[in-house]
Amino acid sequence: MDDTNEGDPDGTRSAPPPFRAAVDQLRAARLRPQIEAEPTPAPKRLAPFAYALEATVVDGDQDLADGRLVLLHDPAGHDAWRGTFRLVTLVRAELEPEMAADPLLPEVCWSWLTGALQARGLTYGEPSGTVTRASSHYFGGLAERPAASQIEIRASWTPREGLGGVPEAGAHLAAWCDLLAQVAGLPPAGPGDASVVTLPQRRGPQSR
Prior knowledge:
The chain contains 4 helices and 8 strands, in the order αβββββααββαβ. With 208 residues, the protein is an alpha+beta fold. The chain is elongated.
């Protein structure tokens, strides 16, 4: 978190054990090969301790979707969270015109998030968020560009804390990646899919 602390660039070594354990789960997570993820500087004002990842769904040289997942921890607890941990996410993707025109799209996208958590057997509380659909139309010197639509999901939820007050952070990351893949239009990963990769370690304070 403090870039001047070269021995502890993301502040996890000095954090409470439950937070360190949750971050270790995120670092050890294994993702689908189409999802490229790496640590990114975390927001410092949302909680005493925070760890963030950003990810992109890639198909060849095309980015299909991208997002950010932030793990927050307040050892004293937080009334709005009803717990000591909170997960916060932003997911974005370009849409096909037919899909963008679907009036039920926001409800469907929100169900993708809750469904991804439920499919992993995860217990969580206090979910909240927004689904925003935006369209861009180009004029003048940009008039040749086709109209574009984008969906944006912003959400947060409280993961259940297990033994030692540690949430199943790795499983929540896997569910979040399932959401990313679904928004990007990828087929579901089969059980036992071995074509996965390990998250890279942060390269430096200003990675990406």
